[in-house]
Design a protein that fits this description.
The protein has 289 residues and is α+β, with helices and mostly antiparallel strands. 43% of the residues lie in helices and 28% in strands. The two termini are 38 Å apart.
Length: 289
């Protein structure tokens, strides 16, 4: 308990310092980078819990109702909500199992990124209430399953990610051809990687997978028929950039997660994964013998 409290105090201190830098940056063009949350922010089971919530029919109906309420506020918002529904419906309907798996992985990661942003801004709100309003007004670029991109409020994007996982999961869940990656592996990395070599245990819930090393969540993602998609559970950061003629900008998380794609191999053969976002890391997962 004392260790947890010490970590919490340290994290609030980082947030307070970041808030001070934000206001200092208002007067000077500068850029500073801070941790956007504690290490190991996402624990084993985090991806599974998100998937379970997205499989809860009552919860999903509640999200749809909330979007409909938001849509009733004005015509422009109604058009955006309709575009989200269409983008999810038509995109999921057209996708094969492997593309569905990628859509689900990126939606889980998109939700985690929103959680990082919300946690960072809430922590900074303890220093100045201004940051609470930033979360309410923040916008983000949302890529829908049909490929279109829309700029939406962050909280609307979070709902869209859950609806994507719900729709894709309903189509993929009972697919008899889904691969199974459960087991113990050794990971061997190449390049500039956010994960380290070592032993990993892969657990699978339907098509969602988590890879743990000891008591830490190392990778999370999804699996289809022939491909798997994994995301490194690394520490995320926020960048505060001063602007000479305006308020500073906050970018949190300040870069995309590292998404890896791997083609599934025959039993007993290592699976090779390559980064498709940063392109700086590759790794192999070899089944333990």
């Amino acid at each position: 308990m004392k260790r947890k409290r010490a970590r919490r105090i340290a994290w609030w201190g980082i947030a307070a310092h970041a808030a001070a830098v934000f206001f200092a940056a208002a007067a000077h063009a500068q850029e500073d980078r801070f941790p956007a949350g504690p290490e190991n922010m996402f624990q084993p089971g985090a991806a599974f819990r998100f998937y379970d919530n997205a499989s809860d029919l009552a919860r999903i109906e509640g999200l749809k109702a909330s979007l409909n309420i938001i849509a009733s506020q004005d015509t422009g918002t109604a058009e955006t909500v309709l575009e989200i529904h269409r983008g999810i419906e038509t995109g999921v309907a057209a996708q094969d199992a492997d593309t569905l798996a990628r859509s689900i992985a990126t939606s889980i990661d998109g939700t985690f990124a929103i959680m990082v942003q919300a946690g960072f801004l809430r922590a900074m709100t303890q220093t100045d209430p201004t940051f609470g309003r930033l979360l309410q007004t923040a916008q983000m670029d949302l890529r829908l399953p049909d490929g279109r991109q829309v700029m939406v409020p962050v909280l609307m994007a979070a709902a869209a990610h859950s609806l994507t996982v719900a729709a894709a999961g309903e189509k993929l869940r009972d697919d008899p051809a889904l691969a199974d990656m459960s087991g113990v592996y050794s990971i061997s990395t190449r390049g500039d990687c956010a994960v380290a070599d070592g032993a990993l245990t892969v657990t699978q819930n339907d098509f969602v997978i988590e890879a743990t090393g000891g008591d830490a969540l190392v990778l999370y993602g999804t699996i289809g028929h022939e491909r798997a998609y994994l995301i490194a559970n690394e520490r995320r950061y926020a960048t505060i950039t001063g602007v000479a003629d305006g308020p500073p900008r906050i970018s949190v998380p300040d870069r995309p997660s590292d998404l890896f794609e791997g083609t599934l191999a025959a039993d007993g053969t290592a699976i090779e994964f390559q980064s498709v976002t940063r392109g700086t890391c590759a790794f192999s997962l070899a089944p333990a013998r």
